[in-house]
Amino acid sequence: MSLKVTRLLEILGDGKWHETKQLRQLVDLTDGQVEQLTDFLGRYDFAKIDESKNRVRISKEFKKVLTDVGQPQKT
Q1: b/e map of 30-67 (b: 16 or more CB within 10 Å)?
Q2: Which of 36, 39, 40, 61 makes a 20 to 30 Å CA pair with 1?
Q3: β-strand partners of 50
Q4: Whole-angstrom distance, CA of residue 49 vs CA of residue 46
Q5: Do 41 and 56 contact (CB within 8 A), yes or no?
Q6: Quick count: other Cβ atoms within 10 Å of Cβ 9?
Q7: Domain edges within the chain
Q8: Model's pTM, two decimal places?
């Protein structure tokens, strides 16, 4: 499951809106799993959730965190 979460974050990392149906297909998750993950991201303001259009977009602040992860530390 952790690889799927990583893949989901990679997809969302572009900062664009993504339909939850598309995420389910790309990451091979169930409806419930996508809902749990997007609810978590939305609850902690890591993502914006548009329930009327069933789509999600990573927040600008969290996108920066994702971008910074894996970057070499400056010394």
Answers
A1: eeebbeebbeebbeeebbebeeeeebbbbbeebbeeee
A2: 61
A3: 55
A4: 10
A5: yes
A6: 19
A7: 2-67
A8: 0.82
Residue 50 structure tokens? 């548009």
pLDDT 10s digits, 9-43: 999 999 999 999 999 999 999 999 999 999 999 99
Cβ(39)–Cβ(20) below 8 Å: no
CATH code of the domain occupying 2-67: 1.10.10.10
% of the chain residues with pLDDT over 70: 89
> Does the CA dihedral 26-14-4-51 come out positive or negative?
negative
H/E/C letters for each residue in the chain? CHHHHHHHHHHHCCCCCEEHHHHHHHHCCCHHHHHHHHHHHHHCCCEEEECCCCEEEECHHHHHHHHHCCCCCCC
